[in-house]
Amino acid sequence: MKSRVDSALFPAPGGPALVVGGVAVHPGYIDPAAQAALVEDLRGVIRAAPLFSPMTPQGRAMSVRMTAAGRYGWFSDRTGYRYIPSHPAGTPWPPIPDAVLAIWRALVSAERMPDCCLVNFYAASARMGLHQDRDEADFSWPVLSVSLGDEALFRVGGTTRGGPTQSVWLRSGDVAILGGAARLAFHGIDRVRAASSTLLPKGGRINLTLRVVD
Length: 214
Ligand SMILES: O=C(O)CCC(=O)C(=O)O
Ligand SMILES: [Mn+2]
Known about the structure:
By secondary structure, the chain is mainly beta. It has a single domain (7-211), classed as Alpha-ketoglutarate-dependent dioxygenase AlkB-like (Jelly Rolls, Sandwich), CATH 2.60.120.590. The chain contains two helices and 13 strands, in the order ββαβββαββββββββ. Manganese (II) ion binds at residues 131, 133, 187.
C-alpha cells in the first residue's frame, strides 16, 4: 500500500525513528514543556467534551475512557464501532488544538489535517485489546499516536490476528506512526506502568490518536 509517510521522515526532527513491527516510534519527540502545554490544551477539550466509557459491540464497558476533538469522534456501543459528528451528549466536538495539528503537520502532511483526534485516558488498570484501526475510508493516510503521562506497553503484530507480535514501552512525549504496511497492523496496550511519569498530577496516561476519516 502506498503510504503518505515517506522516507523524508526518517530521521524526523528530534532524532531517528525506531521501527517496531513496522510502526515508526519517535522517542521523546515532544519535550517536557510542550507536553505540559498539551495537557493544558486537553483540559479544555475535556471540559467541552467530557470523557465517557464506550461499550464494545459485545456489551462490555471499555476500560479506557475517551473523548475526541475535530470533525468526528470515534464511538462504540451495541450497534458497533463508528465515527459520530458530535459528542454522545449532543454537543459539538471541540476543535483539535493547534499544537496537536502541528505534530501532524511536521510528521505526516501539511496538506490534509486529521478529521479526528481521539483522546484516550488510561487509569493504571486500563488496557486496550489488540485491534486494527479500520473505520476510516482511506488507509493511505497513516494514524499518528501521541503518548502523555505514564508509560504503556504497546504491542504490535501483523495484519492478521494471531500472528507474532513485538512490544515497546511508549513514554511521555513519544509519537508513533502506523503507516504503509503497518497502517492495518493489529496493536493494543497491554498495561500501564503506574506512577512512571509526573506529567499528570493524578497519574494515568493520555493517548492522542489522529486519523483522517473521510
Ligand atoms: O493508546 C494507544 O497508544 C493506542 C490507542 C489506539 O490504538 C486506538 O485508540 O485505536
Ligand atoms: Mn488503534
